[in-house]
Amino acid sequence: MLALVDCNAFFVSCERVFRPDLEGKPVAVLSNNDGCVVARSAEAKKLVPMQATLYSIRHLLQQKRLHVFSSNPVLYKDMSRRVIETLQQFSPEVEQYSIDEAFLGLGGFTHLDLTDYGHTIRRTVKQWTNIPVSVGIAPTKTLAKIAAHVAKRSQPTNGVLNLETVDDMDGLLSTIDVGEVWGIGRRNKAKLLQAGIKTALQLKQSRDSWTKKRFGIFGLRTVLELRGTPCFAMEPVAPPKKMRIVSRSFGHLVTELSDLKEAISTYTTRCAEKLRQDNLLAGCFTVIMRTSYYQKENQYSAARTVQLDPPTNDTGRLIQVAMQLAEMAYEPGYEYLKAKVIATELVQADEVQGSLLGGPVHDEKRARLMATLDQINSKLSTDAVKYGAMGLTPTWGMRSEYFSQRYTTHWDELPSVNIE
């Protein structure tokens, strides 16, 4: 048995932790660059659809019928860490599936009433982090996802559903849209609908040979999981990262190469920091830039890639490479909306194969420089010390008109209490 713990409207819940006055009120969180709605409270779902643009809901803000926040990834990531650390008190096997979901292995817990145990998990997470969660308990990951989906939306469950206690499993699966099944996705849902499969029950009852032919071994495993046969094992240890991506839209359309270089240098710096945190080196580096998809004319996109020999996570070297790639990709006369850097062919820093023709794999002086840079920026603030290529006063930055404080990670933004 295992459990899927899913944070309810996670981004909204993170904002409400430090704004208890918003409890019970419609709240929405926007995507990067204040683009569109990506998270809604239950109250906000009655007012705005998912992916609604900020422009389309401004009248609700002006009428004070809706509270909106810009994306605050630093806060959300730290709150996610706190939730995961809380869950580790309840199982030796915790697999973080996403920023707001985690699987818990419950093997050996059969002497307990798992429904009560789920309620204990739910109460403890709420008490320790103030984040509300739903808990789905089942013999497979796919069924646990369905159980959590139902627990989140069904009041009688009080946030916890153990499928072992459900008398009519087929009846429950017949109420689940096939698109809600873990791993199906939009394209597979469209194929299933064309074949007349609309519910999780119909997918469960599909023929194995047909499923494997149309959706491969992964699709067959999903069907077997719906039948109660575990096919996706717990992965408490995260698999090795295959790439690192840093991507942002600009606050306004950019036309100058100098502005693009500043943005790409900043993204490259963030990418290098992540590589060093994971003790990884990049063997390949890519820079991508594009115009807006919504422009009917004058569209352009380009990607340029270079192999790195030897692999590196040195910010200075990566910025140098990124600047060359940016010059190669840039075409004047276009209005650019977004840029992206991607580090691939990642290897552990202590497992690099040397080359007779390449340079030295390890540069101790540069490694100490990067470690010192990270230490200073960690103690003081992000970019307290930075490369000049990032610019001093960037004008291309993302819009974040409704940005909240980073309450848990920045000294100058800690919440304060007024006692009168």
From TrEMBL:
MF terms in GO: damaged DNA binding; DNA-directed DNA polymerase activity
One biological process term in Gene Ontology: SOS response
Record keyword NADP present: no
UniProt-listed InterPro entries: DNA/RNA_pol_sf, DNA_pol_Y-fam_little_finger, DNA_polymerase-Y, DUF4113, Rev_trsase/Diguanyl_cyclase, UmuC
Gene Ontology CC entries for this record: cytosol
Recorded family membership: Belongs to the DNA polymerase type-Y family.
Name the record gives this protein: Y-family DNA polymerase
Organism: Adonisia turfae CCMR0082
